Amino acid sequence: xxxxKRLGLRRTPVTSLLAAAVLVATGTAAAVPxxxxxxxxxxAQAAQSGRYFGTAVAAGKLGDGTYTxxxxxxxxxxxxxxxxxxxxxEPSRGSFxxxxxxxxxxxxxxRGQRVRGHTLVWHSQLPGWVSSIRDANTLRGVMNHHITTVxxxxxxxxxxxxxxxxAFADGPSGQLRSSVFRxxxxxxxxxxxxxxxxxxxxxxxxxxxxxxxENWNDAKTQGAYRMVRDFKARGVPIDCVGLQAHFGxxxxxxxxxxxxxxxAALGVDVQITELDIAQxxxxxxxxxxxACMNVARCTGITVWGIRxxxxxxxxxxxxxxxRNGNKKPAYNAVLTALGGTPAATRRAP
Length: 349
Ligand code: G3I
Prior knowledge:
Blueprint: H1 3-6, H2 14-26, H3 42-47, E1 52-57, H4 65-74, E2 77-80, H5 86-89, H6 99-111, E3 114-122, H7 128-131, H8 136-153, E4 160-165, H9 180-185, H10 189-200, E5 205-210, H11 219-234, E6 240-243, E7 246-247, H12 256-264, E8 269-277, H13 282-293, E9 298-303, H14 329-337
Parallel strand pairs: 1-2, 1-9, 2-3, 3-4, 4-5, 5-6, 6-8, 7-8, 8-9
Helix pairs in contact: 8-10, 13-14
Residues 81-82, 124-125, 211, 244, 274, 312 line the site of ligand G3I.
């Protein structure tokens, strides 16, 4: 009889086989020395596989000690939640305000965290002076000026930029959504934005970021995939796809890992950029993290806020820390899925 079957083991990793051997030899579940270093925070554990684990940060919360305590302890990447958006950085034409974004970037640098830039071109949180432009040359000039000014401000300090955010329509069309950019400049506005971004900061990774592109079979996913494939085929500069991952209580769709691998196979990195899950089921979080860990080019995960009370969907308690800053069960599930061992359950060596 197959000894593995006798032990009830299937597709078992080497460490477990060693454990089984000890079990057979001694009749006890003696601890096998596990030489893999385990970290006790999300960022440090993600770093062991060359990934980052980040969070969205709001400048207005940086005076809250509980918030900054968790921020500094757990995360090695941050994304400004609203402070780099167009309405915050260029509320009127040619007049830029970088105060709140600077606060986040400077704080992150001081803590040794990387920064994701979010976002340069988006139809939402767009000031009225931009959305009312009807002339293509004017809008192209305004868009390029916005991209170059914001990127130059943070040149060398942003690891990835969401150059264009949420350009595809929901529903079955698989086409771009109507927006001032699409309607005035045509579909080519995305390519234009990426080319301008590359020439401004050649060292930054340039991402296309969207929600509801996690299910491989969705028309929206297919639309984004076709665009990235076309960009790679024609040499339009793009380095990464951000999948926001705002999930319902069930977590990721069954095809999530397939979607990540299929984008990655086009020659781009993939990143989970805005993760939150209604009710924060540990299983749903673990499934999401595992999908990323199983794809070599999935380079990092960002959760969209720290405590439930910080979330844009706070009524659904979708994050890893409760409103008092305590770790929730999903936290341990994520740490374990990243390859770590939750502190409370770690055995003595
Ligand atoms: O800044 C004003 C403040 O002056 C005013 O007093 C207050 C009153 O409501 O509103 C403040 O603006 C709010 C802003 O967040 C900053 O706090 C807006 O009302 C509010 O709508 C805005 O929500 C943000 C939302 O994007 C806007 O689209 C959320 O915080 C932010 O988490 C969310 O993030 C987006 C990503 O950027 C893109 N993907 C989806 C994701 C969730 O919607």
